[in-house]
Amino acid sequence: ELQGSVTIVVLGASGDLAKKKTYPALFRLYRNGFLPKNTHIVGYARTKLSHADYLDRVTHYIKLNKDNAQAEQDLLDEFKQLLYYQAGSYDQDASYQALDAFIKSQLESTMAPGQRNRVFYMALPPSVFVPVARGLRRNAYATEGANRIVVEKPFGKDLESSNQLSKDLGQLFTEPEIYRIDHYLGKEMVKNVMTVRFSNVIFSHVWNRMYIDNVQVTFKEPFGTEGRGGYFDEFGIIRDVMQNHLLQVLSLIAMERPISTDAEAIRDEKVKVLKCIPPIDIQDSLLGQYVGDANGEGDKKLGYLEDPTLKNKSSLTPTFAALVLWIQNERWEGVPFILKAGKALDSAKVEVRIQFRNVAGNLYKSAARNELVIRVQPDEALYMKFNNKMPGLSYQTIQTDLDLTYENRYTDLAIPDAYESLLLDVLRNDHSNFVRDDELGAAWRIFTPLLHKIDQHDAAIKMTSYKYGSRGPDELDDFVRKYGYDRSNAH
Ligand code: BG6
């Protein structure tokens, strides 16, 4: 844990990520008593802001518990006392020197030497990651305590650019000082995967190719890329959520048992399993882009290409992808891991489906496959599709669920937001839920050849389309069936 006091500098404090995620998470940590006693939070951005404007901005998205309105408001007022703001440029040494001088004279003078820790949270666009990291390292690096730097994707656009970024950052901060956020690793059900796998004996012997037929990790969002056309078009759905979020979930499902719950032991196993995955074959992909639903009921939704923030009106960037990954090791050979992700679909859902094989010599013709479902969001749940005798005089088999729906089971427990959990990990110096540099490289290696083919409009790449608000391209059902997924289960 961080001994003593800490100054958290939020760089890019006036941006969306900081307002929507970082400050609300910091407030919840404060409210729940998890910020070290002597914590100060300094917002840093280019915009000149009065203190009052800054407070307005960064507290705008903080939600207070209405049942306890006055007490919550008091806590928020206390929290505001911890907040400071410094305007400065991202590429001038003088600006970081001013930041350093401010922290030293105003915040650290009462803190014990040796315990004057600093956390730099970079809520910034990738174009300034390295210049800002350099400015901080040269001019605002703590010499009387620990330094931690928190960065967030995109970590490059392919293997080469990601390696370059790792190299540049690595020259400025050590790997133990760097925390690469993949916020999916802060989600409750993602954090639960290891617990479920490695603390329940019923899974240890069936978690392999002998018993598991296929695995699907699905990400669905019901909204398009409206307003984010600029960013999104450069990245596309594979870079946006698959190479990072979905692949992290896959690693946790597929990795071997780590020798301990130590961060490096866990990350070692993730890297190992990623290294067993060959680059994705074009044949194992289905790509799509959404089109508007101008004749639909109610809201007329614009297609991807019609978004005014999109510059390239003939863009071939995928907004949907289904990709199949194969893990070439003894445990998983021949088991398809199907990653599916899309914007502008029919619902909001992230889940993992682990479909087991058919029962051998099945006595009961109507028995369906077992399937373990981990619902990450919304409404966290873990359930197992399970065959049961129809209660009563019938001997018919019915499929039912062994159901652990969190809101029924853990009625008094609040589930923290991913950022709250991850920021606490940073303060506790726990890297388990952060991406290590070699892990990042191993992840990019799997996707880079396919991404380059998409970027170059290679003739072998076929782009399908799907309607805004639909289940995805019409080809999807056949695609997953081809890899053995039995949809008769999916109700
Ligand atoms: C981000 C992507 O990393 O994750 C977004 O850039 C996506 O496009 C978001 O919407 C999804 O996160 P969550 O927590 O809302 O599922």
UniProtKB/TrEMBL annotation:
GO BP field: glucose metabolic process; pentose-phosphate shunt, oxidative branch
Q: Which reaction does it catalyse?
A: D-glucose 6-phosphate + NADP(+) = 6-phospho-D-glucono-1,5-lactone + NADPH + H(+)
Q: Does the keyword Heme apply?
A: no
GO MF term list: glucose-6-phosphate dehydrogenase activity; NADP binding
Q: In which pathway does it act?
A: Carbohydrate degradation; pentose phosphate pathway; D-ribulose 5-phosphate from D-glucose 6-phosphate (oxidative stage): step 1/3
One Pfam family recorded for the sequence: G6PD_C
The UniProt keyword set, sorted, is: Carbohydrate metabolism, Glucose metabolism, NADP, Oxidoreductase
Q: Which organism is it from?
A: Absidia glauca (Pin mould)
From which domain of life does this come? Eukaryota
Question: Signal sequence span per UniProt?
Answer: none
Q: What range(s) does the Glucose-6-phosphate dehydrogenase C-terminal domain occupy? A: 194-485
Known EC number: 1.1.1.49
The free-text function statement in the UniProt record for this protein reads:
Catalyzes the rate-limiting step of the oxidative pentose-phosphate pathway, which represents a route for the dissimilation of carbohydrates besides glycolysis.
PANTHER family attached to this UniProt entry? GLUCOSE-6-PHOSPHATE 1-DEHYDROGENASE, GLUCOSE-6-PHOSPHATE 1-DEHYDROGENASE G6PD
SUPFAM superfamilies of this UniProt entry?
Glyceraldehyde-3-phosphate dehydrogenase-like, C-terminal domain, NAD(P)-binding Rossmann-fold domains
Q: Where is the Glucose-6-phosphate dehydrogenase NAD-binding domain?
A: 9-192
- Name of the protein in question: Glucose-6-phosphate 1-dehydrogenase
Q: What InterPro entries does its record include?
A: G6P_DH, G6P_DH_AS, G6P_DH_C, G6P_DH_NAD-bd, NAD(P)-bd_dom_sf
Q: Which family does it belong to?
A: Belongs to the glucose-6-phosphate dehydrogenase family.
Single GO cellular component term: cytosol
